């Protein structure tokens, strides 16, 4: 019997703990009123005004100036290329590329040297690499495209 009474007390306390009494809060803030429609509004839907499309202004591309060491190596490579020393010219350009690997002009010059060495597949690959780094330099891109076309036609 004591067991039944303890179960009944436990259940009544358990159920009383789960029940909530409604709480009235008289200090509630009233909801804000809606904003008034703009003056001149009829309350009907009016489609938005559409402005015509304008092309964004593209800033002119300025090729970044290479460092002094790279300029010296490029000048040396040009002199070596003019003398027909293509292996030495390629070596100078590769050395410059180790200094500035993201210089699109260096990749283009090396592509031209490889083209003169009759390494057409490599020349096309190097010109494509130059194109990837050329950014907005349209003259360099055009030269690379011409070199790629010529190399692939041979």
How would you characterize the overall build of this protein?
The chain is mainly alpha-helical and 154 residues long. Helices cover 58% and strands 0% of the residues. The chain has helices spanning 2-18, 68-82, 86-99, 104-116, 120-134, 138-153. The longest helix is centred in the first third of the chain and has 17 residues, at 2-18. The chain is elongated and about 115 Å long. InterPro entries: TPR-like_helical_dom_sf (IPR011990). This is Tetratricopeptide repeat protein.
What would the keywords be for this entry?
154 residues; signal; 6 helices; TPR-like_helical_dom_sf; 58% helix; Tetratricopeptide repeat protein; Serine Threonine Protein Phosphatase 5, Tetratricopeptide repeat; mainly alpha; elongated
Q: Indicate the radius of gyration in whole angstroms.
A: 39 Å
CATH class of the domain at 68-153: Mainly Alpha
The CATH architecture of the domain at 68-153 comes to: Alpha Horseshoe
Order of helices and strands: HHHHHH
Strand content: under 5%
Oligomer: single chain
CATH superfamily of the domain at 68-153: Tetratricopeptide repeat domain
Sketch the major β-sheet.
none
Number of helices: 6
**What name does the CATH topology of the domain at 68-153 carry?**
Serine Threonine Protein Phosphatase 5, Tetratricopeptide repeat
| Low-confidence blocks of residues | none
Protein name: Tetratricopeptide repeat protein
Keywords: Signal
InterPro entries: TPR-like_helical_dom_sf (IPR011990)
Organism: Thiolapillus brandeum
């Amino acid at each position: 019997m004591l067991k039944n009474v303890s179960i009944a007390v436990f259940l009544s306390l358990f159920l009383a703990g789960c029940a909530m009494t409604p709480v009235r809060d008289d200090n509630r803030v009233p909801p804000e009123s809606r904003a008034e429609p703009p003056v001149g509004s009829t309350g009907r839907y009016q489609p938005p005004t559409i402005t015509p499309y304008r092309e964004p202004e593209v800033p002119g591309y300025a090729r970044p100036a290479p460092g002094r060491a790279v300029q010296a190596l490029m000048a040396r490579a040009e002199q070596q290329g003019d003398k027909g020393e293509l292996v030495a010219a390629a070596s100078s350009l590769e050395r410059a590329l180790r200094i500035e690997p993201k210089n699109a002009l260096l990749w283009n010059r090396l592509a031209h040297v490889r083209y003169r060495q009759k390494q057409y597949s490599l020349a096309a690959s190097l010109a494509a690499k130059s194109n990837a780094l050329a950014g907005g330099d349209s003259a360099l891109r055009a030269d690379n495209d011409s070199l790629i076309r010529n190399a692939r036609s041979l």
